[in-house]
Amino acid sequence: MTDHFSRRGFLSAGTLLSTGVPPAEPARKPLDISDCAPKSMLRVHETRVERSRFPVIDIHTHLSFSTKSEKGVFLAGERMYPMPAVDILQIMDRKNIRTMINLTGGFGAGLEDAIARYDKAHPGRFYTFTEPSYHRWEEPDYPKAQAELIGSAHRAGARGLKIVKTIGLYLREHVTSGRLVKVDDRRFDPMWDACGELRMPVAIHVSDPLAFFTPTDRFNERFEELNNHPDWSFHGGDFPSNAEIIEARNRVIQRHPRTQFLALHFGVAEDLAGVSNDLDRFPNLSVEFGARIGELGRQPRAARRFIEKYQDRVLFGTDAVPHGDDTPQQVFGDKLYEIYYRFLETDDEYFDYAPARVPPQGRWRIYGVGLPDNILEKVYQSNAARLLGI
Ligand SMILES: [Zn+2]
User: How far is the CA of 321 from the centre of ligand 1 (A)?
Assistant: First the structure.
């Protein structure tokens, strides 16, 4: 030991003697996580997939919006339109998109307007879904009235019903105040039944990424995203857990076996074993992967096995929104579709799941699942065509 220490002492004394200055310490600078944007040095194959191998039905898009919302509850039927149909069609034609499903069609006159602008003006290229009339929630005959509204939406041309996490996480007994209304509240039963009778699939988004239900702290894998959008966190307060929401959703699916449910965002895309269990239990359930290739692509072997096993019940969706840059994983355009096609069609490794400087839904990259043609065709269009009856 004495010998070792004296050697080190001798060496550093030697350096000091020969240069006259002590050796410099390596520079250490603090780096804010938001400034960090490391470039991968991997030399891996990059495939550009400009057009999908088969025509696409995008089951999850938002081409119209409610003009009025309060505390997460969408209350107006009137619609805003971020992009005219003719401009949307240009991108669709370039990217081999046969049909887009506009889930947020609203209700009443707004719904009719959306259907006139898209579905009727461009037959076969657009279909529109209706949404519940939450502003009527406190009316004593709401359950019956809402079921009748589904009927009138169907007569107006709506092809399905869209549920956002309003049910379970925003809608309260007095619409925006009071106790949260549960996903399996019996007052919605006539609405689910009406959808079954009219063969209108229910596109249901009731939970959210698991990280949104945990504290926004240094252990949260989506810290930056939640820090940018604090209202996306469902941790604390009187919010139910994600598991409670999914259990309530499953009770609804079980109680209404004649109604087809499409779990948007893959249900819980971080838990493929759980989603697999749900699909095994409920033959009236299918899934789509809008805004979740970031999750599927970071577990590519499990995702591929999953899609192979449930190849008749996985649908193509992007959650595309034709405006803004707040959520780059959703901005409607060529880049978005090329990423989805690359994920589905190639074996490429370690690429961005969104067109953004920093991965917006967590700092990781994804891997392609390289699906064979027969499965690709089903996922791209025929599973959706069957569900929609088109
Ligand atoms: Zn969506």
Answer: 8
**What's the gap in Å between 265 CA and the centre of ligand 1?**
8
Is the alpha carbon torsion for 209, 217, 229, 364 positive or negative?
A: negative
Kindly give the distance from the C-alpha atom of residue 319 to the centroid of ligand 1, in angstroms, as a whole number. 4
Quick: pLDDT tens for 273-304. Answer: 999 999 999 999 999 999 999 999 999 999 99
Residue 260 C-alpha to ligand 1 middle, in angstroms?
A: 18
Task: Give dist(CA 185, CA 191) in Å, integer.
Answer: 11
| 315 φψ region: left (φ > 0), alpha (ψ -120 to 50), beta (else) | beta
Distance 78 CA to ligand 1 centre (A): 18
Distance between CA atoms of residues 268 and 277, nearest Å: 12
What tokens appear for 266 in the block? 């893959």
**pTM beyond cutoff 0.70:** yes
Question: Residue 1 pLDDT more than 70?
Answer: no
Tell me how far apart the alpha carbons of residues 101 and 60 are, in angstroms, rounded to a whole number: 6
Q: Which residues pair with 97 in a beta bridge?
A: 56
- Local confidence band at 348 (pLDDT 50, 70, 90 cut-offs): very high
Q: Is 227 exposed, middle or buried (0-12, 13-18, 19+ CB in 10 A)?
A: middle
Residue with tokens 């006539």: 190
Q: 115 C-alpha vs ligand 1 centroid, how far in Å? A: 18
User: Is the model's pLDDT at 131 over the cut of 70?
Assistant: yes
Convert the pLDDT of each residue in 161-215 to its tens digit: 999 999 999 999 999 999 999 999 999 999 999 999 999 999 999 999 999 999 9
Query: What is the 3-class SS of 76-129, one letter each residue?
Result: CCCEECCCCHHHHHHHHHHHCEEEEEECCCCCHHHHHHHHHHHHHCCCCCEEEC
Domains of the chain from N-terminus onward: 46-388 (3.20.20.140)
